[in-house]
Queue: 3 jobs
Job 1
Amino acid sequence: MIKHLINGRQVESASTIANLNPANNEVICQIAAGGEAEVAQAVAAAKEAFPKWAGLPASQRAKLLRKVGDLINQHVDEIAKLESLDTGQSYWRTKKMLVPRAADNFYFFADTCCHVDGETYPTNDHLNYTLYQPVGVVGLISPWNVPFMTATWKTAPCLAFGNTAVLKMSELSPLSADRLGQLILEAGIPAGVFNIVHGYGSAVGEALVKHPDVRGVSFTGSTATGNRIIQSGGLKKYSMELGGKSPNIIFDDCDFERAVDAAIVAVYGNNGESCTNGTRILVQDGLYDRFVAALAERTRKVVVGDPLDEATNVGPMITRDHWKKVTSYIELGISEGARVVAGGLGTPEGLAPHLKNGNFVRPTVLADVDNSWRVAQEEIFGPVACVIRFKDEAEALKIANATSYGLASYVWTENGARAIRMAEGIEAGLVFVNSQNVRDLRQPFGGIKGSGTGREGGHYSYEAFLEVKNVCVSK
Ligand code: NAD
């Protein structure tokens, strides 16, 4: 049973949710399903813990956060296994990249919090100076797709800057965050500073964002839920990291092999269940047929299978419902007029017998897509690429921006001036030029339009987790 963590103690609820393994749909465990009462207890604990935690010198908080990073690094294998079991994502990738990165989140923000300073604005008569102060109790809400990394990406800066937290994980993937709660206590962070309440979004999530003592909300999830949260929570401090339908723009003059390699990663990475994936692939006329053929050939080699197997590239979709959603988009694409050049409906070939009840889909390339179609406009959040043809730079930009989203974007060209023009013109929070999605923790991460508001990363995380106060002193 996965229990809540409230004021340093494990707490149960009367109701529970069955947590299923996406690879076979067998029950892994039960999760406590909290509600208003559990949220109220957790917020009260966080509120009580706040003054003492915020009052510690940053260097002391940093020391405790580094200890959390060390403990994560000592349990990489265990955490990666839990995450893979819970989400169906590659154990190997999680182990090599995502769990170490989660530890880095703690090391990085331990350093960052020791360098928070302010500005001064002197005038003839006055001295203005700024103070950065913690927000108070912050609600952290995470989706299911990269739960451990996301939980630590929020928790580390939140606690580093002196806030206390109530974390709500997705009801579909609570296991690794449960472990995080234990490690945070083991590191010596006082009870009440970090709390977790599990359960449904409509119960725990709503109660958390509506709670008057929750002064800020850092949310990662879908655009629909993000909008709902702002409506329910009213005036608070929000950071909203939402959905995406990112363009991957391939010009005739690109480095072909690198662009194909990167497109494969940008569509199928993380089972296709990633907000920044470049699933709208825009390809220029002169290269279109060759690119589609190469993409199709490489897609057929993408290995679908057991997420614990090192050879697996794409594991199962998180739930049967999500499997139905992804499958229905493949059907929709076909009915809208797309040409299926790889994958399609049906069970992936060569699936081992123990996976026959899992939520597996075939990595799929839909070619000759029109950007106005629903498959090109809506977030599928699975291993499905839509390939769209364009003539010239102006048309590429027009298509890239004809979306309600604005999270990531990718441009492949050997023409430097064009790359700079495209980077300026694309409506997105992140532009990668001749590059896959790589993250430096100092970068501002976030989107515009339907992909969110606010940025997190480096000093940009001040926006989410600190309030700035101006002090004006008369001379
Ligand atoms: P979701 O919006 O359904 O749920 C996200 C979280 O919000 C869950 O913990 C859920 O229980 C909770 N929730 C649901 N309803 C709520 C409510 N009314 N009030 C408060 N909380 C509520 O998203 P999901 O399906 O878990 O995740 C996939 C989505 O997340 C995709 O759209 C993806 O693009 C997005 N995402 C964005 C980023 C980013 O950094 N921009 C990163 C990862 C995922």
Job 2
Amino acid sequence: MQICVIGAGYVGLVTATCFAEMGNQVVCVERDPQRVAMLSRGEVPIYEPGLETMLKAQLAGGQLSFTSQLKAGIRRAEVIFIAVGTPSGEDGSADLSHVLAVADELGERLDHACLVVDKSTVPVGTAERVAQHINAGLARREQRARVIVASNPEFLKEGSAVEDFMRPDRVIVGCDEERGRELLRRLYAPFLRNHERLLCMSVRAAEFSKYAANAFLATKISFINEMAGICARLGVDIEEVRRGIGSDRRIGTHFIYAGCGYGGSCFPKDVKALIRTAEHEGIEPGILRAVEARNALQKTLLFQALREHFNGHLQGRVVALWGLAFKPGTDDLREAPSLVLLDALLTAGAKVQACDPAATAAVAARYAAAVEAGQLMLSESPYAVAQGADALVLVTEWKQFRQPDFPRIRGAMRMPVLFDGRNIYDADQLAELGFLYRGIGRPA
Ligand code: UGA
């Protein structure tokens, strides 16, 4: 099939590359010419395992190309995906200006019948607005091409996006016209051996499903984090409780890991946007507000624990920090719990020695003044940052941190104290190795 993907951000790039991999002819339109030049050379500006190799192969094979010209990109497209950003507006609702600008441009340029698909996470009613914008442009030009608009939200996780796209749990197709549904069914058939996993529904239901899925996952996390808080007081280990409840299939084992809070570009933004939608409809979103509040609190817990440990005196203390990205497998710092901790530590006068396999460059740019002043040291070696530390804090559970040489770490630290923000270590084993260990929702 001839496909055009508009937007070479994280979603657009993965979508374009994976459709090309499945034998479609894909043109990806990106308005930033420098990004187009980079991508055309096979350089991928985001960190996503497996993406660069696949993209290079598809470029070389001629299945995938990049352009900054929308007109050239859509010329032969049967399906056009809109995968541009929907950042949070000032009031937390989704800012649709990029999506609607693309719709306007499509209205100005389209001259053939095609299917336009919203891939970006957009509030209910957006597909209708996109259709209005496109049709207004077509009508002005007296262009009779018939355009169908559908919603096909993505459920990719950063760090495993290629795998998620190639082997999806389900694909949601929201389209009110059979012809549009049929095109998307054909396009996704090779990704879904089991056709029951392609779910067709109304456009509005598809748009809402995306928000409901992310809000539910965020709720699971905030719920377990609240349980962890109660457990800690009662001398109960949340890790035992997690296993105890997760084995009930109605609850499930996923997304019930207590930790120092969720981050990323999706959960925080989508929960906020859904709150605004509910308010707009006169519904009090009490659960969603609690999910947000619990997460904000959760991000402060590691700092509170450190402050207590040092009796309120962090000035001059050396704190080693493992993991800066909001989760393993990405260099993305958006809404990362590490930033809340880092800000608080720097403000309190601590010296921070931080390590991350992918995100140190971004942190160096963001905290240039602290790096310059010698208050923040960055390294890719977990051992280098443990040197002389009064405490070590695990924030992001990268594989590299799972089984370190603890005797070596202990030897390097001034004080063997470990705060485990993701509960990945065995508390008893660390105690045996001479560490003072503190987890989230685990008895001291
Ligand atoms: C999330 C969803 O999982 C995807 O399905 C969705 O497509 C995507 O948002 C999106 O809307 O684009 P992502 O933000 O990449 O994906 O990351 P997740 O793997 O879901 O992790 C989010 C955060 O939750 C991380 O900070 C992680 O550390 C935290 N988390 C996750 C927990 O604290 N506990 C858990 O049990 C699971």
Job 3
Amino acid sequence: MTRVFSGIQPSGVPTLGNYLGAIRNWVPMQDTHESIFCVVDLHAITVWQDPKELARQTREMAAALIACGLDPKRCTLFIQSHVHAHTRLAWIFNCVARMGWLNRMTQFKDKAGKDREAAGTGLYVYPNLMAADILTYHATLVPVGDDQRQHLELANDIAEKFNHDYGVDFFPRIEPMIQGVAARVMSLRDGTKKMSKSDPSDQSRINLTDNHDTIALKIRRAKTDPEPLPDHMSGLEARPEARNLVGILAAITGTMPENVLREHGGKGFGSFKETLVEALVAHLTPISTEMTRLLDDPGALDAQLRLGADRAEAIASPICAKAEEIVGFLPRR
Ligand code: AQP
């Protein structure tokens, strides 16, 4: 059975972008693939996180994943820092990856901002850790949003260079799995920027914990343009905000954007936005209710995460140890 790995940072409340671009696609994979899902706290600290908040958000993210349909009995769900193979292999990959490769990563450029000299080195080597996350499980399929495509190409470059340098055929090739009409959900305030949990503006995103009133307010305030919705997809070109909202409604109602336009084409955004609010509330309310229930019993949640870490460790540790042996590290006897 193909082994799947994916992760999500506990850098805030999961957004509709995380949900539609990634988490929602993970749920059916539990029945068709050997699935490993991880809350990547090591990645989160590549930008500053308040320690108390990080711990709270890590549990909250785990609860969100379970509330969205990940079942710790049918998949391996754990916290990244609980399994040390990730950092051990990441160090080796820091030595394999080339500066030139990392210099091309657009996420680093976006997150580091203008003052690159002040960016943390962890942010720079983030893709090496991501490669280690996947390859320490010999996972070959990685369901992610479109924004992660470049990092996965880099992971393949690292795997190939490791195999070549050490004359082995050890790390497999990774296939990205980028799915659905909402593989990249954009900000509600700027249709050219992706929706992000760490965007300073809460108005730019829908959080999975937002209630009816908050969703309604954010969607009503979402940036649009004065034109009515077009009848055809071609009419959405050069209208990033309109295209984004149409994509969200299509994704959340399980249809294609063409069908949304068939129904709403020619109408203004007022009635369209009301339909979108109702669809979002109907979809997200059961998730936030279940999150609250899970977070009411942190002991039970932590016990599930512990079992997940034990299962993950049993797969990751021997693969990482083999990589260390290939590199020439003397085993501890
Ligand atoms: N806007 C998005 N549309 C579609 N997919 C998205 N993903 C993130 N944003 C969107 C996908 O969510 C998964 C988990 O992402 P992550 O938390 O590991 O990191 P990220 O991509 O950096 O997500 P954020 O929300 O933007 O986090 P911050 O603000 O902390 O950087 C990934 O599969 C990603 O593709």
